[in-house]
Amino acid sequence: QLQLQESGSGLVKPSQTLSLTCAVSGASISSGDHSWSWIRQSPGKGLEWIGYMFRTGTTNYSPSFRSRATISVDRSNSQFSLKLSSVTAADTAVYYCASYSSSSGFDYWGQGTLVTVSS
Amino acid sequence: DIQMTQSPSTLSASVGDRVTITCRASQSISVWLAWYQQKPGKAPNLLIYKVSTLESGVPSRFSGSGSGTEFTLTISSLQPDDFATYYCQQYNTSPYTFGQGTKLEIK
């Protein structure tokens, strides 16, 4: 059973970079058909897909985040990461990591981590 | 972006009721639609994918149907554990987008 666990800073200052990591267990991050995704949820905008990285290194970002988001994979530690630059209060949300399959959508999720952007 | 619109936003029902939630896409998404259940403080949980395929472990009282732009999630006989918020999501075209959610409340 695939399991995902987010970690990272819960408080980020405006204009700085948000950094989160997702530890993957129960499956290889380097094989299979899953892509490694980030999704966020806020009261104002609901669920928003940020982007994903496939095992080959191919990335796909939502245009809403393409200029600020970077997703990377650390195969040696079986984890993947999100960096979101130039954050504002509008980036305050619960951030989820999830595995994405082109046949079944977002099939496994982390428990989520709240990130607050505030000075 | 493809807009996903759910109705109703809130649904009040009783245990044992049959309920239906509708999801409309702003353009055709073929069969690439998923439904998720979310409980307070928890991550969304995949219920149904590819319109009507139940994820492993999901009770058979849940079913999905539709194609193109209009889809439904039906719960045949509500159980106490089913009171939650439900989201549809299209994965036909990037960026992948979610509906705004339907909160299923106890009447």
Describe this structure in words.
- The complex is a heterodimer of chains A (119) and B (107).
- The mean pLDDT of chain A is 95.
- Chain A has no helices and eleven strands.
- Chain A starts with a strand and ends with a strand.
- The radius of gyration of chain A is 13 Å and the shape is globular.
- In chain A, a hairpin with a 4-residue loop joins strand 7 (69-74) and strand 8.
- Chain A has strands at residues 3-8, 11-12, 18-25, 35-42, 46-54, 59-61, 69-74, 79-84, 93-101, 105-109, 113-117.
- Chain B is mostly beta strands and 107 residues long.
- Chain B contains no helices and eleven strands.
- In chain B, the strands form two sheets. In chain B, strands 2, 4, 5, 6, 9, 10 and 11 form a seven-stranded mixed sheet that branches. A four-stranded antiparallel sheet of chain B has the order 1-3-8-7, with no helix packed on it.
- Chain B is globular, with a radius of gyration of 13 Å.
- The model of chain B has no long low-confidence stretch (mean pLDDT 97).
- The A-B interface holds A 46-49, 60, 62-64, 96, 98, 100, 102-112 and B 1, 32, 34, 36, 42-46, 49-50, 53, 55, 87, 89, 91, 94-98, 100-101.
Any key phrases for this structure?
heterodimer, A: 119 residues, mainly beta, seven-stranded mixed β-sheet, four-stranded antiparallel β-sheet, 0% helix, B: 107 residues, 50% strand, globular
